[in-house]
Write a structure and sequence with these properties.
The complex is a heterodimer. Chain A is α+β, with helices and mostly antiparallel strands. In chain A, the strands form 3 sheets. In chain A, strands 4-5-3-8-9-10-7-11 form an 8-stranded mixed sheet. A 3-stranded parallel sheet of chain A has the order 1-2-6, covered by helices on one side. In chain A, strand 1, helix 1 and strand 2 form a beta-alpha-beta unit. Chain A is elongated. Classes of the chains: A alpha+beta, B alpha/beta.
Chain lengths: 312, 341
């Protein structure tokens, strides 16, 4: 059985691993290859801060909530193990800020210790009147891709090189919490956010639909910097170490379904798993499990179609 | 005395914060901080600086709570300002966990820290040997940075820092009018106080920047405190032990206890081992004393003996010490010379 996974970001590599883990003993040999025009550290995933947090508004596709839950549960089961830091995985707590009261998010029971902010805590953020505190997970994109690549390489999977969010990275090691501001009218990730990673803190706050420019825009740089500095004045001491831009693969909903490429004696089965926008890391494992399920169905169908007709 | 000349003896967190509080309460007095050790060589420099108060048998809870609230408010204002990194103060969230349900599930300081609540079952899964826990957000004071910042404030308001080892408080006469004794364990000799004795604490500093939460076992013996530059792992409580050299076996034991609570620490790099002697006393000594010796008098304000909880209550008790100093200044004003007509 020959399987090609196209794309080597978090979705491609995790889907590859998930399928390989579940089916390699059923299919001897399982010949799996990963094709991509970019590999870590040049993928979109490498740019992500990696905070595990679903979008605030409920997803159009209700399956996405299950996928978020599965991803969180899977990562939570790993975070207490010694491999956690090789994966780039850690717990992190922090603040979601709003100007006015909003309903609780659908994911409030997925994360840990979800609660509303107390008035004293809101005093820290004079521009905001309401918010949440919770403990979640952070999965560093670059470290995780490196780990996934190692796991796949161990399993004999081969990689082939076949063919933007603007982010700032600073050193601010005293920051231990994420801070994400929301403006429901403007949409997710368009207002300032601060996400401390293992070595650097990511400052963000642009989400530009339709902008294909990977070059760093100085106006974006100023917008992000001013917005984050207002939220967290101590950033005046932070040293800027990097500026990156990446394209979130935005789509009205995730495309996760089977398809066929006609041609030749047998059609090629395709499983689409793309369009995760700004929440790829947050939802990746649940989607990988779903893709593996679809893969399993394909195997079932192939077995059935090969059962020899009985000769009576 | 037109300008009171004040000597603050001791340059740990208590000495320096007391000096700053005096300069704010009594502007115009001259302050000199005298100590044999300054940061980074004081007892305070070894402490991780977490704001979680300790109980003293002889200090009433309402006093402790007031001191803790004052300290928390003072540091919280700094943490929210642009100066936070210069002062070494930042917020940190985490968990205090217990192997059996504690007698007091909600401690006296629960409403001083932020967002105090019991841990959920899902959160407790991280700690299979523990059955109960408290989650909250508190402040951490990077003591070496904070002490340097306090020294800067003292100098900016005209205060002096003097490195000198005193054998006797009388050495300060006649240069100074009032002595503020913040010498911790030094008071055994300088104040003849036999009720104060060391409780030795050993800690490790490790590089583990992915650890963003504090974890403290309710017994207080094992803890993981993430700071700006390293994570502090602890600890020990060895009564009457004066040994300032780190013990390798103890380091291994601390590391292993902390790895049980946070397995990801296995790959952390240990960069330092440190030892501090907590100045433990049944209660904090905060009182005035008028020393007398052959016709000479020396007003002293004692402010020492904070044991394990110095950083947690330092500002509140320093403000009170400053009030006592102000009272001393009022009481001991030398009468102005009578005019001779």
């Amino acid at each position: 059985m020959r399987v090609v996974v196209i794309g080597a970001g978090v979705i491609g590599l995790s889907t590859a691993l998930c399928i390989h883990q579940r089916y390699h003993s059923d299919l001897q040999p399982l010949d799996m290859k990963v094709y991509a025009d970019r590999f870590t550290p040049h993928t979109t995933t490498d740019v992500a801060a990696g905070l595990i947090q679903p979008y605030i508004s409920p997803p159009e596709d209700p399956r996405e909530m299950d996928w978020n839950q599965q991803t969180f549960d899977y990562l939570l089961s790993q975070v207490h193990s010694p491999t956690a830091d090789k994966m780039g995985l850690a717990l992190i707590s922090g603040y979601n800020l709003f100007r006015e009261a909003v309903p609780d998010p659908v994911w409030k029971d997925i994360v840990l210790g979800f609660r509303k902010l107390t008035p004293r805590e809101l005093d820290m953020f004079p521009d905001y009147g309401y918010g949440w505190f919770n403990t979640s997970l952070i999965l560093d994109g670059r470290t995780y891709l490196k780990w996934l690549t190692e796991r796949l390489t161990e399993r004999g999977v081969q990689f082939f090189l076949r063919k933007v969010a603007s982010l700032e990275e600073v050193e601010a090691p005293w920051m231990k919490h994420f801070i994400i501001t929301h403006d429901p009218e403007r949409g997710i990730y368009k207002t300032p956010y601060i996400i401390p990673g293992s070595q650097t803190v990511t400052l963000g706050g642009t989400f530009q639909l339709g902008n294909w420019t990977e070059l760093i825009d100085t106006q974006d740089h100023d917008t992000i910097w001013e917005g984050c500095y207002r939220l967290e004045p101590t950033l005046k001491n932070a040293r800027l170490v990097g500026v990156r831009a990446g394209f979130r693969p935005a789509r009205p909903r995730i495309r996760l379904e089977r398809d066929r490429l006609p041609g030749g004696p047998a059609d090629t089965e395709v499983i689409h798993n793309y369009g995760h926008g700004g929440q790829g890391i947050t939802i990746h494992w649940g989607c990988a499990l779903e893709a593996a399920k679809l893969f399993g169905k394909i195997l079932e169908e192939r077995k059935l179609s090969r059962t020899p007709a009985s000769h009576l | 005395m037109d300008t009171a000349r004040i000597a603050v003896v001791g340059a740990g967190v208590i000495g320096l914060s007391t000096a700053v509080c005096i300069s704010k309460l009594v502007p115009g007095c001259s302050i000199t901080v005298i100590s044999d050790k300054f940061t980074p060589d004081t007892t305070s420099d070894v402490a991780a600086g977490m704001l979680i108060p300790h109980i003293y048998p002889d200090t009433p809870i309402h006093t402790l709570k007031r001191w803790f609230q004052d300290t928390f408010d003072h540091l919280y204002a700094i943490a929210c300002s642009a100066e936070a990194a210069d002062a070494g103060v930042h917020l940190v969230s985490g968990w205090q966990i217990f192997r059996s349900i504690p007698a007091e599930e909600v401690p006296f300081w629960a409403d001083v820290v932020l967002g105090f609540r019991k841990m959920t079952e899902a959160e407790l899964k991280k700690f299979p040997q523990h059955v109960f826990g408290q989650a909250f957000t508190t402040l951490k004071c990077e003591t070496s940075v904070y002490l340097s910042w306090l020294e800067k404030r003292i100098k900016e308001s005209g205060g002096l820092l003097l490195t000198r080892r005193l054998e006797n408080l009388w050495e300060l006469q006649p240069s100074f009018d009032i002595v503020v004794n913040c010498t911790g364990l030094g008071s055994r000799q300088l104040a003849g106080d036999s009720t104060i004795s060391p409780v030795r604490g050993q800690v490790l500093q490790v590089q583990a920047p992915w650890v963003k939460h504090f974890i403290r076992d309710g017994s207080g013996l094992t803890y993981i405190y993430p700071g700006a530059f390293h994570v502090t792992l602890g600890g020990t409580r060895q009564k009457g032990d004066w040994n300032l050299s780190p013990d390798a076996q103890i380091s291994r034991d601390i590391f292993s206890r902390c790895c049980v609570l946070e397995p990801s620490l296995h790959r952390a790099c240990i960069t330092k081992e440190k030892v501090g002697l907590r100045p433990v006393r049944p209660g904090v000594r905060l009182q005035k004393e008028l020393l007398a010796h052959g016709g000479q008098r020396l007003p002293v304000v004692h402010h020492y003996g904070h044991g394990s909880g110095g950083i947690s209550v330092h500002w509140g008790s320093a403000m009170e010490a400053a009030r006592l100093v102000s009272e001393c200044i009022q009481t001991h004003r030398t009468p102005s010379p009578t005019s001779k007509l």
